[in-house]
């Protein structure tokens, strides 16, 4: 069966510091991968998606970036965090374009 | 008009009650629909897909009304453990990558 991992689970970072969140998927190959952010009391905002290694599409322009160095690894990064980057970051995968998405446990980020 | 809209609630219902939520979508070309459940501070988990003919899974029934462009989720015999936020998700069919749009969720609180 497929599993999806995210780490760290929680993170407190000062404004201006860098960020690296990691997501890995097991039990499948060539998944579509997604990064979402969920701000407190708000809906899921799609940040990035990837259909293959090195292929990243950005949905929202911001100070975040994503990379996919391996088939089942998806990384979300920032060079300098803003207060507004605080939120619940969720990685998701789907098998094939647009099929049902399954979410990882998420990373709760607080920028102070 | 938002692409996907849900009543945020909260819906406060007694144990054993039947409760229904609706989710409206604006894109008439939408083809795939899902209900997710999200517990507090956790990731969304797939509850069920919504099929054109409607589908049932135990106490949960999902319906699609294409004419009025909404999907519904009916929960019978509510349990305390059903307390959560229910997110709907909608995906158009356009070939290739298909962006899933999530609603902001409806909060359900089942009361003893």
Structural notes for this entry:
The complex is a heterodimer of chains A (112) and B (112). By secondary structure, chain A is mainly β. Chain A has strands spanning 3-7, 10-13, 19-26, 32-38, 44-52, 55-58, 64-70, 73-78, 87-94, 102-103, 107-111. The radius of gyration of chain A is 13 Å and the shape is globular. The model of chain A has no long low-confidence stretch (mean pLDDT 93). Chain B is mainly β. In chain B, strands 2, 4, 5, 9, 10 and 11 form a six-stranded mixed β-sheet that branches. In chain B, strand 9 and strand 10 form a beta hairpin. Chain B is globular. The termini of chain B are far apart. The model of chain B has no long low-confidence stretch (mean pLDDT 92). Chain A binds chain B through residues 32, 42-44, 46, 49, 51, 57, 59, 88, 90, 97-98, 100-106, 108, and chain B through 32, 34, 41-46, 49, 87, 89, 91, 96-100, 102-105.
Any key phrases for this structure?
heterodimer, A: mainly beta, seven-stranded mixed beta sheet, four-stranded antiparallel beta sheet, B: mainly beta, six-stranded mixed beta sheet, 11 strands, globular
Q: How many helical stretches of chain B?
A: 0
Distance between the termini of chain B: 37 Å
User: What is the number of strand segments of chain B?
Assistant: 11
Question: What is the succession of H and E elements of chain A?
Answer: EEEEEEEEEEE
Describe the main β-sheet of chain B briefly: 6 strands, mixed
Radius of gyration of chain A: 13 Å
Series of secondary-structure elements of chain B, N-terminal to C-terminal: EEEEEEEEEEE
Question: In summary, what is this structure?
Answer:
The complex is a heterodimer of chains A (112) and B (112). Chain A has no helices and eleven strands.
Please render the helix and strand layout as text.
The complex is a heterodimer of chains A (112) and B (112).
Chain A: E1 3-7, E2 10-13, E3 19-26, E4 32-38, E5 44-52, E6 55-58, E7 64-70, E8 73-78, E9 87-94, E10 102-103, E11 107-111
Chain B: E1 4-6, E2 11-14, E3 19-25, E4 30-38, E5 44-50, E6 55-57, E7 60-65, E8 70-75, E9 84-92, E10 101-102, E11 106-111
Parallel strand pairs in B: 2-11
Antiparallel strand pairs in B: 1-3, 3-8, 4-5, 4-9, 6-7, 7-8, 9-10, 9-11
């Amino acid at each position: 069966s497929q599993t999806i991992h995210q780490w760290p689970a929680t993170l407190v970072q000062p404004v201006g510091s860098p960020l690296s969140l990691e997501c890995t998927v097991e039990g499948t190959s060539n998944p579509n991968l997604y990064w979402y952010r969920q701000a407190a009391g708000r809906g899921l905002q799609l940040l990035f998606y990837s259909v293959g290694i090195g292929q990243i599409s950005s949905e929202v322009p911001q100070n975040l970036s994503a990379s996919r160095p391996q088939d089942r690894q998806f990384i979300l990064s920032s060079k300098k965090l803003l207060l507004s980057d605080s939120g619940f970051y969720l990685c998701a995968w789907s098998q094939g374009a647009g099929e049902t998405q399954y979410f990882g446990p998420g990373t709760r980020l607080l920028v102070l | 008009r938002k692409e996907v809209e849900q009543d945020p609630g909260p819906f406060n219902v007694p144990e054993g009650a039947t409760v229904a939520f609706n989710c409206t979508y604006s894109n008439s070309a939408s083809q795939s629909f899902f209900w997710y459940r999200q517990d507090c501070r956790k990731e969304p988990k797939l509850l069920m897909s919504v099929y054109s003919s409607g589908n049932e899974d135990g106490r949960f029934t999902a319906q699609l009304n294409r004419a009025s462009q909404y999907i519904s989720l009916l929960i019978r015999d509510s349990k305390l453990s059903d307390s959560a936020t229910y997110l709907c998700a909608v995906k158009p069919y356009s070939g290739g990558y298909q962006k899933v749009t999530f609603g902001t969720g409806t909060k359900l609180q089942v009361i003893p």
